[in-house]
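fyi for ur records
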Amino acid sequence: MDFRFSEEQQAAVEAALAVFSGVAPDSVPSPSLVAGAVADDFDRALWEKLAGADLLSLLLDEEFGGAGLDAIALCLVLRESAKVLARVPLLESCAATAAVQAYGDEELRGEILRRAGTGELVLTVAAHGRTGHDPAELAVTAGRDGDLWVLDGTQTAVPWAHNADFVLVPARTSADRTVLALVPRVHEGVALGEQTSTAGERLGELRLESVRLPGRYVLDAEGGWPWLRDLLTVGTCALALGLGTAVLGMTSDYTGKREQFGHPLATFQAVAVQAADRYIDLRAMEVTLWQAAWRISTGAEGALPVSGDVAVAKIWASEGVRRVVQTAQHLHGGFGADTDYPLHRFHAWAKYLELSLGPAAAHEEALGDLLAAHQLG
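which gave:
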């Protein structure tokens, strides 16, 4: 078996490295030093560079100006973005456009996809539910009124909501089915409340009151929301892997130069053992991520549904990235909390990624349910 990435996937990584090479994690104020969000908008200059490198259209078919690549390619690019804490809605916009491509009608695809692939339109996804603890698909109701759909409800912690053009919202119908509604940010009945993430990024509480949408803006094909949720989750795992890789590199550099008792910290056995444990965490995060992304990309069968592999990847990502940043803080000593040094910023982002789309415990419970329902062996 050949486990190497394809030439097209490797080309996407090379393009990402070129775009992210000049990005500084400290490009905005520290979240520790400001009361609210660190900035009102995402990094528009970087967004234009991503569009120019065709990295916003990775998952789109050639007829829409895309590269026709898969979830693996997207995760490879996301991994590189997290190494520099890139402040762009790359995951959310790419995942939402992929959902429109897979489940939208011809008119909607023509209206959205090319413009999203060039960065002209920005999409995001409301995936955290009403409180952040309940299923996202239960937070909003959707009903028919003639040719229109009517939406009511609230979604919390929507990333980049104040700056996106559309928010893709899962909603529940009276027939107990989940649809995906593409809600314009500026629309009658749509209101946004101010929220801030642990990383200091601006979030939105999306409030929908009798929001009426034409039928083409609602993706009602079966399986759309589970597929999108899995893609968002593996993308989050890729971000955690990239962040953890950068943090372990910072820790290696610091402990190799910092001396105690006349010797570099890295030569002490206790330090080396802790760093080795975190390296093992990263390798486990990596292998479970690629397994889940491969299942999503290929539709390959397995002993469990694809959601099982996604759950395993998220468990490792959540717990692994937490352990990596905690060990880094410990080995850096006081430098870990110094706002003039970037490690504290990586720690804040790691906490957001750890809890995003469900902490490890929630995915352990889901995995247990899957194991109980599917006889193995």
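Residues 48 and 187 are 26 Å apart (CA to CA). thats all i got for now
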